[in-house]
Design a protein that fits this description.
The chain is an alpha/beta fold. 43% of the residues lie in helices and 12% in strands. It has two domains: 2-213, no CATH class; 233-667, Alkaline Phosphatase, subunit A (3-Layer(aba) Sandwich). The protein has helices at 2-37, 44-76, 78-106, 119-128, 134-154, 162-165, 167-178, 192-197, 201-213, 298-304, 323-329, 351-356, 375-381, 413-426, 451-464, 469-476, 479-499, 556-568, 634-655, 663-667; strands spanning 253-254, 273-279, 308-314, 361-366, 386-388, 433-438, 508-514, 531-537, 545-546, 551-552, 575-576, 594-600, 603-609, 612-615, 618-622, 628-630. 44% of the residues are buried.
Length: 668
């Protein structure tokens, strides 16, 4: 038996050395792809070094448990143990390369968000993505052939002293006892993109999957050391809700009656039309004056100077799944996004059903499928009068150009706006309108109907922004993304100009925002993903203003409803379950909101309170331009953790079946 164990130890050691070699090879490939395809501020050697350190940490973390399992199986059958290791080996690298290529294309690390989508939605997303293009398949094929050669060449006849073979599990044991199982501190890297680049993608995926299938139970222990009772005086004004019956309805609270829009808007006898335009991927990073990547939206920039404009605004989700419930209903996230509850969504209040009950006709227009993310179910639940999506476009309309596989997300922004305006012109009736439009053009694969023209506009924009040739070359790595941003901006310009020809233009309020920031252009910080603009434009405006205070999508519905109630006798309940307090119209930078943020359908780890942003266990301070700096302040961190846990506990109660509002409100 001893000889058997010695031989198994040697076989395991040789296979593990090959495993480590390939782990380091994947790091070399990943950093090389990043060097070729993206803009890196840190040196290639520095990034490769950090990546190798992360790989070695991952390798040492799992060597000892893998060794013990291998020895146990080898006692039953050495051949089976070796064969199983090789199968696991190959499967691991198949997944590792898929995750690597996915990140290289989307700049997002795939985690448990994979489990938040249906097979149909995953297929649709992969159909649009270029994450598994032919060149990447070629790279993987070459590596797989090389891997197979090494396994066949070296593992059948192991030649090594058994004393050396136990060195790996001993090192693993020492690392687990005295080393650190936490991620290495790569904070010196200049951007969030680079910090994610050096992380082991498999480790992130498996840790995320484990957390998803073994979720925390959100309970606040009032006897724990982290319990702080009431928040400090600094945050005393952050929440002024008076909850009605938290035991039965976790979020039900009395109406705030905070009307901040009336000082800026004229009123007429007829209630105004409201048009909400959600632009896919419209991040503040490249939108309007002061954008740190440069202003690629000249029309929106000019419009913002004639509007009420919030440059430090936040979406509540890192993907599109969160935008409709947050923007229209100020709703929590439940487990995988509120809409993912499908037919089990609890009754709720929203702009759609409240305005619909007060004489508004409500519509939703989208160039893609309204079934994606259960948007259609949510809209029907809220009694939307019309849902116009990809299936309702006339045959004369042209879809976004498809990839070689024939996939297209649907109809581009210009076609969406054209369809909307044609239907509006042909509609009859004098009721005020609430129309919500959701675009798709600024989404991977970033195709336009006239690529040569928008590529030319992109080059012209680079020159206008004053970039030198080296800077221009960096931006050309993301030419498709920036070209579609210019396309989306031009589409909005044409749309707004066409609206001026309609009779009810003078009594219309337009709101323009993004659902989240495009992730396929590298991000500078964690908050960058959520940082979007909010523009409120209307011929009814008495004056314009820029508000540098922080608000979020949660605050839009409460403010619009308060404005309409004050000026147009909107009949609404005296209680609601809105998470938002309403838009902040303070001119200077500050934040009096508590803002939970959900990055993906399975990743609720971000929380903003005051000028601080909690991301997992990391704490950042927001700067007046919405950049952020890492801070070490355990007391402040505990305050945010406690406030975030309060939200999570209530959110978990909705997951477990508690309701948003009582039946009496629904019936009335």
């Amino acid at each position: 038996m001893l000889k058997k164990l010695e031989k198994s130890s040697i076989t395991f050691a040789l296979l593990s050395i090959i495993f480590l070699v390939f782990l380091l090879l994947t790091s070399l490939i990943e950093v090389s792809l990043a060097e070729l395809n993206h803009n890196l501020n840190s040196s290639f050697i520095s990034l490769l070094g950090w990546s190798i350190l992360e790989d070695i940490r991952f390798f040492l973390t799992w060597m000892l448990p893998a060794y013990l399992i291998y020895l146990l199986l080898s006692l039953l059958s050495p051949k089976f143990a070796r064969g199983l290791y090789i199968v696991v080996f190959i499967l691991f690298y198949l997944i590792q390369f898929s995750l690597l290529f996915y990140f290289n294309t989307t700049l997002v690390m795939l985690g448990s968000d994979l489990f938040g989508y249906s097979i149909q939605e995953i297929t649709q997303t992969l159909g649009a993505s270029d994450s598994l293009g032919w060149e990447k398949i070629l790279i993987f094929s070459i590596v797989l052939v090389f891997l197979s050669f090494l396994l066949v060449r070296f593992s059948p006849k192991p030649k090594m002293k058994w004393q050396l073979s136990v060195l790996l599990p001993v090192l693993s044991l020492l690392f687990l006892l005295f080393g650190s199982s936490e991620s290495l501190n790569a904070s010196e890297l200049s951007s969030d993109f680079e910090r994610n680049l050096v992380k082991n993608k498999s480790e992130h995926f498996y840790n995320s999957a484990y957390s998803y299938f073994n979720p925390d139970i959100y309970e606040v222990d009032i006897y724990a050391e982290s319990y702080l009772g009431d928040l400090s005086a600094e945050y005393a004004s952050i929440e002024s809700f008076e909850y009605v019956d938290e035991g039965s309805y976790p979020f039900l609270r009395k109406e705030l009656n905070r009307d901040v829009l009336s000082p800026f808007l004229e009123t007429k006898d007829e209630a105004p039309n409201i048009v909400i335009i959600v632009v896919e991927g419209l991040g503040r990073a490249f939108t309007n004056e002061g954008a740190y990547l440069g202003n690629f939206t000249p029309f929106l920039d000019s419009l913002s100077t004639k509007s009420l404009y919030w440059p430090n605004f936040l979406s509540n989700g890192g993907r599109t799944f969160a935008v409709l419930p947050s923007l229209l209903g100020s709703l929590p996230f439940a487990k995988n996004g509120f809409m993912e509850m499908g037919d089990n969504m609890p009754d709720q209040l929203s702009l759609l059903n409240l305005l619909g009950q007060n004489g508004y006709e409500t519509s939703f227009y989208h160039g893609g499928k309204s079934g994606f993310d259960n948007m259609g179910v949510y809209l029907k639940k809220n009694n939307a009068d019309r849902i116009i999506d990809e299936d309702d476009f006339p045959k004369a309309y042209k879809k976004i150009p498809s990839k070689l596989n024939g996939f297209s997300w649907g109809y581009g922004d210009k076609e969406l706006y054209r369809n909307y305006l044609e239907k509006k012109q042909s509609a009859s009736g004098n009721s005020p309108q609430l129309d919500v439009l959701l675009t798709i053009s600024t989404h991977d694969p970033f195709f336009t109907d006239d690529p040569e023209r928008y590529d030319r506009l992109f080059e012209e924009r680079l020159t206008k922004l004053g970039f030198d040739e080296a800077k221009k070359q960096e931006y050309r790595n993301y030419k498709k993304q920036y070209a579609t941003i210019l396309y989306a901006d031009e589409a909005l310009k044409n749309f707004m100009n066409s609206w001026k020809e309609l009779d009810d233009y003078d009594n219309t309020i337009f709101l323009i925002t993004g659902d989240h920031r495009i992730p396929e252009i590298p991000m500078a910080s964690k908050i960058d993903r959520y940082h979007v603009p909010l523009i409120l434009y209307s011929p009814l405006l008495k004056r314009t203003a820029e508000f540098r205070s922080v608000s979020s999508h949660f605050d839009v519905a409460p403010s619009l409803i308060s404005f309409l109630k004050t000026n147009y006798n909107l009949q609404i309940p005296t209680v609601n379950s809105f998470l938002g307090q309403g838009l902040d119209t303070t001119r200077s930078f500050h934040n009096f909101h508590k803002i939970p943020l959900m990055q993906t359908k399975t990743d609720l780890r971000d929380f903003v309170m005051g000028e601080y942003h909690l991301n997992g266990e990391d704490l950042y301070r927001l700067t007046p331009d919405m950049a952020e700096e890492s801070v070490t302040d355990e007391a402040k961190k505990e305050e945010l953790l406690y406030a975030f846990d309060q939200f999570k506990r209530k959110n978990a109660e909705i997951i477990n079946g508690k309701r948003m509002i009582p039946d009496s409100i629904t019936q009335k």
